[in-house]
Write a structure and sequence with these properties.
five-stranded mixed β-sheet; 27 helices; 40% helix; 21% strand; globular
Length: 883
């Protein structure tokens, strides 16, 4: 059943405590594919914080009520009102009491994959954000925390494995070939963290000894026969557990920790207490089936979900407006874990690339919203890059502002003070204000104001006075429902470079040094004067991307080339190259649209050649430097009247020039990185492969026949998925016979493995070719494609919409029409996946007039469809709104 009623906006300002609290929840499931009885026994008590006695109002969605009892006695029908979407008892006892509810649910018919569903023969749950109400009637809100005991019964042949949250308390056999298991979780949790899994699963097992000496059993469950592909996930889990003890002092708190990989899942993974459920693409890996990026994603997401045990589970969010409190904080923690496990600068570059490509775009369009929204209609639509990635950047700014030592003290206080509670952003930030002695009230604007601040930095050097004045201003553009903004607190890690790249002293006119090199911009405009500056400096601002802002500085091309060659901050070395390339590309887009030829920047090519030749640099860093700004980066910089075709042509021309001018160095580097050693997913080896494959791609951009042969040879001879996929991805960019031959060969090699065929779908969907739309349409009828599996839908249709700017944004509007058709077809079965696909239209207002008109027409067609889900309707309404 799909929710289609007009949603009532939920507002942060209207929050009130729950009228009733739940102390314990005892659940009894008798698993059946189409008729699963669920008996829930709730021990309830009035909430003193809520005031006067109130009716008991429980949430539901699509439920069938079988029976209802209070303190063991059946409740007469005139004492309650039950609908599929709610249960109200107008006059419950004004005291603690026990409520028994029996409902009947249909797992097999649950195509939304929310609540209890059956997929590929296995039973599974997904309860965040509001899926538990699809299992039983309940006060389904995160500030109602209870202790859960779960009994599961099933046919042993159908479901030999029965799992739920917590520790296994009891298990045994039953007549008729059935069996049962009872799980108990001693830690209070909200309903969205409940989990159940039942089915035929294999597993691998290991142990972990905590710092206090407790032995924890670790299990990862997968489809039978795929156990060997879960070993890297297990290794990542153990490293995550040790890192969290060392970096944050957090120890695991149950006797067992389980991960279950399923093939049908709306999300990447879910942090249910002690029983994490994962999309199998983020668990399964082997050198033959997974590329380096897959290993990195597994490591990061395994860590993210484990870290939620404290930042999300032990301390959860009071309401869904506080979602960033668990997600932004946990993203920050998993980014720090990856930085420590791999390369800190390369990890940072990757995180910033992702932030700019997705969150900056969200901030600049009709779907912009604060890190902590003040109103929502459908909470599923606020699992966004703003909440997650920008939320993490806000945490990082706190660290920058108060320093590592005070930040750790603030985290320790937060864990100590709010363990077992449902907390708010204010309570979190207050911990850091207390330990640091800082007033962080203005800093809170990062949570309440949407948009990406622009920082304008203008330097003035006075040679006679030997002073350098840095004038800084901040502008926060209007966003939906927020036309006027107040100044933010923007911490900018800053350095001044001499002509030879050395760091110049940063002494302010008052004689003080800049604390930890961080300038704090907290007014609309400020000036900072530095004394004792003996030469004109080059400004190196926002080092390590210390604040999520767009920096506009009066840096000359020579300044940028100096930074690219010598800046002591490696992130800003990379940023200088990106800025040079972006300036060139934006100019060349304008030239191409005017019928002129693109220009060449010899200085940029010289800077790239110097980086390529610098043996002291990590290979992965060099690879990042050689990657030009993406089409999305260029479009965002242009801002309005965007022509995706002109952007593609300008970027392709730059890549060709890089391949020609750097040919000898690229060839030499490629040859030096060819490695015959057995594959290893470690960071150093992955970095070498990344640089090798970037060199190969740039060489092929010349479109010379011998380079295409080189790519085809690597495809055929590769002994690992990373090199084979890289070669295939490069071939898809060129209309050559080798392309189709390799695509056909890839399918034949891997047609029995759905996760690898997803890669095959992605490459074809993202090929920037006029024939791609017809190919994608044809592939929707392919035997390996299914509209009921979220991974297949995201790989083919989602990748086309989100990852192919020229073909989704075709001038004739055919790309928009195709995606709109698929959104409308998918919406009745799986509104969550359909709504996420709809966000592909989030940049439509920035396009040139013809495309803008066609995109708007497609959105209006979606909005006018009958029985549109709340999920999709909310996205379309916000996308079309005039603000």
């Amino acid at each position: 059943m799909m929710r289609t009623e007009e949603p009532r906006p939920i507002r942060l300002s209207e929050y009130r405590p729950p009228d009733w609290l739940v102390e314990t929840v005892d659940l009894d499931f008798k698993l059946h594919p189409t008729q699963t009885p669920v008996r829930a026994t709730l021990k309830l008590k009035p909430n003193p914080a809520a005031g006067a006695p109130a009716p008991l109002v429980l949430d539901g969605e699509g439920l069938t009520l079988v029976s209802l009892r209070i303190d063991g006695e059946a409740l007469p029908g005139d004492r309650y009102l039950a609908t599929p979407d709610g249960l109200t008892i107008a006059q419950p006892p004004n005291r603690p009491f026990t409520l028994e509810i029996e409902t009947l649910v249909d797992p097999k018919g649950n195509t939304q994959l929310s609540g209890l569903y059956q997929s590929s023969g296995n039973f599974c749950t997904q309860c965040e954000a509001e899926g538990f109400r699809r299992i039983t009637y309940f006060p389904d809100r995160p500030d109602v925390m209870a202790v859960y005991t779960t009994r599961i019964e099933a046919d042993r042949a159908e479901a030999p494995v029965l799992l739920a949250n917590g520790n296994l308390r009891e298990a045994g056999e039953l007549p008729g070939g059935r069996h049962f298991a009872v799980w108990h979780d001693p830690w209070p949790k909200p309903a969205y963290l409940f989990a159940l899994v039942g089915g035929r699963l294999g597993h691998i097992e290991d142990t972990f000894v905590t710092r206090s000496g407790r032995k924890v059993v670790l299990r990862i469950y997968v489809e039978p026969g795929k156990e060997a592909r879960a070993t890297y996930a297990m290794d990542s889990l153990k490293r995550s557990m040790r890192w969290d003890e060392q970096a944050f002092g957090r120890e695991y708190d149950l006797d067992i920790f389980m991960v279950v990989a399923v093939s049908d899942f709306n999300m990447g993974a879910m942090e249910n207490k002690g029983l994490n459920v994962f999309n199998d693409k983020y668990v399964l890996a082997s050198p033959e089936t997974a590329a380096d990026g897959d290993y990195l994603a597994i490591e990061s997401i395994i860590a993210h979900e484990y870290f939620h045990n404290w930042t999300g589970n032990r301390i959860t969010c009071r309401d869904w407006f506080q979602l960033c409190l668990k997600e932004g904080l946990t993203v920050y923690r998993d980014q720090e874990f990856t930085s420590d496990e791999r390369s800190r600068v390369v990890t940072r570059i990757g995180d910033v690339r992702g932030l700019r490509a997705h969150q900056f775009v969200e901030d600049a369009g009709p779907l912009a919203h604060p890190v902590r929204p003040e109103v929502y209609s459908e909470i599923n639509n606020f699992y966004t890059t703003t909440v997650y990635e920008k939320g993490a950047e806000v945490i990082r700014m706190l660290h920058t502002l108060i320093g590592a030592e005070q930040f750790r003290k603030g985290m320790d206080l937060y864990f100590e003070r709010h363990d077992g509670e449902a907390a708010t952003v204010e309570q979190f930030v207050k911990c850091f204000a207390e330990v640091s002695g800082r007033d962080l009230s203005q800093f809170m604007r990062w949570y309440s104001q949407a948009g990406t601040p622009e920082v304008i930095a203008t330097g003035h050097y006075d040679a006679a006075a030997k002073t350098y004045r840095l004038d800084m201003a901040q502008v926060l553009p209007p966003t939906p429902n927020q036309p006027v903004k107040e100044p933010m607190v923007i911490p900018l890690a800053t350095g001044l470079l001499g002509r030879d790249g050395r760091e110049l002293p940063m002494t302010l006119a008052n004689g003080q040094s800049v604390e930890r090199g961080v300038i704090v911009l907290d007014k609309a405009a400020q000036s900072f004067t530095f004394t004792g500056v003996n030469e004109r400096p080059t400004l190196s601002a926002n080092r390590n991307f210390s604040a999520p802002v767009k920096l506009i500085a009066n840096l000359t091309p020579d300044d940028l080339r100096l930074m690219a060659a010598r800046d002591g901050d490696p992130f800003n070395r990379w940023q200088a190259v990106q800025t040079l390339a972006t300036r060139l590309l934006v100019g060349n887009v304008a030239r191409l649209r005017a019928g002129q030829d693109p220009e060449l920047d010899e200085g940029l090519l010289d800077a790239l050649a110097a980086i390529l030749a610098d043996q002291s640099l990590e290979p992965a860093f060099v690879a990042e430097a050689l990657a030009p700004p993406s089409e999305a980066d260029i479009a965002r910089e242009i801002g309005r009247d965007v022509d995706p075709d002109a952007i593609f042509r300008a970027r392709a021309a730059l890549r060709t020039l890089m391949g020609l001018h750097l040919n000898a160095a690229l060839t030499k580097t490629y040859d030096s990185l060819v490695d015959r050693k057995p594959y290893s997913p470690d960071a150093d080896s992955a970095g070498r492969r990344l640089l090798k494959n970037v060199c190969l791609d740039l060489l092929a951009a010349t479109q010379e026949s011998h380079t295409i042969r080189l790519v085809a040879t690597q495809y055929k001879s590769a002994d690992n998925m990373t090199d084979r996929m890289a070669a295939l991805a490069t071939l898809t960019l060129h209309d050559v016979p080798e392309r189709q031959a390799a695509l056909d060969d890839f399918y034949e090699r891997y047609k029995s493995d759905p996760l690898i065929i997803d890669k095959w779908f992605v490459l074809q969907a993202t090929t920037p070719d006029p024939k791609t739309l017809d190919r994608v349409k044809a592939l929707t009828g392919h035997a390996a494609f299914s509209m009921t599996n979220p991974n297949r839908v995201r790989s083919l249709i989602g990748s086309f919409a989100q990852g192919n700017p020229t073909q989704f944004n075709r001038a004739d509007g055919a790309g928009y029409e195709f995606v709109a058709d698929k959104i409308l077809a998918l919406d009745p079965a799986n509104p969550q996946v359909a709504s996420r696909m709809t966000t592909a239209f989030r940049t439509w207002r920035a396009l040139e007039a013809g495309r803008r008109e066609r995109a708007q027409a497609a959105l209006k067609r979606i909005s006018s469809a009958p029985q549109l889900s709340r999920d999709v309707g909310d996205i379309v309404q916000r996308a079309l709104a005039e603000n």
